[in-house]
Amino acid sequence: MAPLIFGIAGGSGSGKTTIAQKIAAAVPSDTVSIIEHDAYYRDRQDLTFDERCQLNFDHPESLETELLIEHLRHLRAGEAIEAPIYDFKTHRRQVSSRPVLPTPVIIVEGILALVDADLRALLDVKIYVDTDADIRAFRRIRRDIEQRGRTFDSVREQYYRSVRPMHLQYVEPSKRWADLIIPEGGENRVALDLIASKLRSVILEHVN
């Protein structure tokens, strides 16, 4: 039986990763794999570090979605893949990769996970995490400073230059493709329980 592939989209800081992790925690760890769309940022080794810092990372073209699509097709065929690992401090892909097994459930999460039509076609369940803009902005500021070594000024500049415009142009409109819209991310227990129940039934089908 082919795996059930979830796509989880939403604005930066909306709670996509929290949703993905909580869904995965609801089932045995060897039955689910999480793939971050962010890991597929193009490796622009032709640019200097300063030039890479100015790239628009919120535009669909910044991601090698075609490689993600290829990887999902391999997983659906029962074949393991080597997912890229992206370093957000250097804006480069690492030399090493991460093995991903063809588990019964695959979760793909990223701000632009519902934008590309070919990627959407591979997603069995499409989820959009809808969180207020001020909460998303605060979460992004905290994450980029604490985890990615950014300064407040650089985060603010990027937010107004690309994050907010791309959210309005690409991310927000993509929720029209969602099968399920979850307000307030990982705090929505009802939605999480419903999804977990669906996953358990899928896993039982695989076992039987």
What is the element layout, followed by pairings?
Blueprint: E1 4-10, H1 16-25, E2 32-36, H2 49-53, H3 65-76, E3 81-87, E4 92-100, E5 105-109, H4 117-120, E6 125-130, H5 133-148, H6 152-171, E7 180-183, H7 189-207
Parallel strand pairs: 1-5, 1-6, 2-5, 6-7
Antiparallel strand pairs: 3-4
Helix pairs in contact: 1-7, 5-6
What does this 3D model show about the protein?
There is one protein chain. This protein has 208 residues and is of the alpha/beta class. It has one domain: Rossmann fold (3-Layer(aba) Sandwich). Helices cover 41% and strands 21% of the residues. It is built from 7 helices and 7 strands. The chain has helices spanning 16-25, 49-53, 65-76, 117-120, 133-148, 152-171, 189-207; strands at 4-10, 32-36, 81-87, 92-100, 105-109, 125-130, 180-183. Strands 2-5-1-6-7 form a 5-stranded parallel sheet, covered by helices on one side. A two-stranded antiparallel ribbon has the order 3-4. Helix 5 (133-148) packs across helix 6 (152-171). The radius of gyration is 17 Å and the shape is globular. The protein starts with a strand and ends with a helix.
